[in-house]
């Protein structure tokens, strides 16, 4: 399986750096991996002899495990770094930690950090390849890419498709990555959230502002429902979770209006808040498919970057 020579990126820090051709290169390779199967029996030597550092300064289940699994499927050695058990807790700086680990002979960093811009900052102090696995309220490029892959599997070409993002858009790096990619591919994007959970500059995003769940579902081909990020919230953004659920939560009677509607959620899910349990597990939901696609997308991204390292 040969890799595209047109993918000329050293890092993946933001979806804004990706052209439509780049997106196609990534999703095409991911689909090849899916066709072959993601079993441990199917391994590829794209990262043979290379060491990947999995550095998550914030908690994660899906992203961390899928990146580490993807790296192993590409035959990389994986060094899993836990910030709470490191010398960072003793006062060592982020860059000193980076240099210490790089001195051990590393090739690629997968980084999640609570500070926006932290991954790009680290990349300027290292010769390694970097993948942004989520930085603050900035971006989460591979989640955006796996969401695109999932939509393409059901719709094909996304030109003119209507995708509504619902929930905590203010704190969501997933929303920002999705919006960049969807606009690049010619889709229309709608937003549904309380005003307090929309960024101040969201009017500049060229997205349709919707006001009710019913209106959003009537308009959309797909809804991508975001988690309420309580850990990032300061007081006063919402009167209560119950009130948010009443006016913005997606419930079964909503999606039954439109059986062809695709329902997505990047996880983890707050059942009974932004989405009800029966909606998340309905026939219209592709949440588990998103998880599976995450492994393939991360394999594709690392393989392509590794070819430029």
Characterization of this structure:
This protein has eleven helices and nine strands. It is an alpha/beta fold and 309 residues long. It has a five-stranded parallel sheet with strand order 7-6-5-8-9, sandwiched between helices. Strand 5, helix 6 and strand 6 (188-192) form a beta-alpha-beta unit. The mean pLDDT is 93.
Which helices and strands appear, and what pairs or packs with what?
Blueprint: H1 20-36, E1 51-56, H2 62-73, E2 77-82, H3 94-102, E3 108-113, H4 118-123, E4 129-135, H5 141-155, E5 162-166, H6 173-184, E6 188-192, E7 208-209, H7 213-219, E8 222-225, H8 241-248, H9 252-255, E9 262-264, H10 277-280, H11 287-306
Parallel strand pairs: 1-2, 1-3, 3-4, 5-6, 5-8, 6-7, 8-9
Work out the oligomeric state of the chains in this entry: single chain
Task: Categorize the overall geometry.
Answer: globular
Q: Please state the average pLDDT score.
A: 93
CATH architecture designation of the largest domain: 3-Layer(aba) Sandwich
Largest sheet: 5 strands, parallel
Low-confidence stretches: none
Rg to the nearest angstrom? 19 Å
Sequence of secondary-structure elements: HEHEHEHEHEHEEHEHHEHH
Instruction: State the helicity in percent bands.
Output: 25-40%
Number of self-contained structural domains:
2
Q: Provide the β-strand percentage band.
A: 5-15%
Number of helices: 11
What class, by secondary structure content? alpha/beta
What is the CATH class of the largest domain? Answer: Alpha Beta
**Beta strands, count:** 9
Query: How are the strands of the biggest sheet laid out side by side?
Result: 7-6-5-8-9
Q: Roughly how many Å apart are the termini? A: 18 Å
């Amino acid at each position: 399986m040969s890799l595209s020579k047109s993918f000329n990126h050293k890092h993946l820090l933001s979806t804004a750096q990706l052209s439509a051709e780049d997106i196609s290169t990534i999703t095409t390779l991911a689909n090849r991996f899916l066709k072959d199967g993601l079993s441990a029996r199917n391994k590829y030597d794209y990262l043979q002899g290379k060491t990947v550092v999995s550095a998550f300064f914030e908690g994660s289940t899906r992203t961390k495990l899928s990146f580490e699994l993807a790296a192993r499927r590409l035959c990389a050695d994986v060094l899993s770094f836990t910030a709470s058990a490191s010398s960072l807790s003793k006062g060592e700086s982020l860059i000193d930690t980076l240099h210490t680990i790089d001195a051990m002979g590393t090739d690629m960093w997968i980084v999640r950090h609570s500070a926006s811009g932290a991954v790009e900052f680290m990349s300027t102090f290292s010769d390694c390849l970097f993948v942004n696995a989520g930085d603050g309220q900035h971006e989460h490029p591979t989640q955006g890419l796996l969401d695109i892959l999932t939509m393409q599997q059901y719709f094909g070409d996304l030109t003119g498709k209507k995708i509504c993002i619902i929930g905590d858009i203010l704190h969501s790096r997933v929303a920002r990555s999705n919006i960049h990619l969807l606009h690049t591919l010619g889709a229309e994007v709608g937003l549904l959230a309380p005003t307090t959970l929309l960024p101040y500059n969201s009017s500049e995003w060229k997205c349709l502002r919707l006001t009710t769940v019913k209106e959003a579902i009537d308009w959309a081909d797909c809804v991508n429902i975001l988690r309420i990020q309580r850990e990032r919230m300061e007081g006063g953004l919402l009167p209560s979770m119950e009130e948010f659920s009443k006016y913005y939560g997606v419930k079964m009677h909503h999606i039954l209006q439109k059986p062809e509607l695709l329902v997505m959620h990047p996880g983890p899910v707050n059942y009974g808040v932004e989405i009800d349990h029966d909606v998340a597990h309905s026939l219209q939901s592709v949440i588990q498919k998103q998880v599976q696609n995450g492994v393939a997308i991360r394999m594709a991204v690392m393989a392509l970057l590794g070819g430029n390292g």
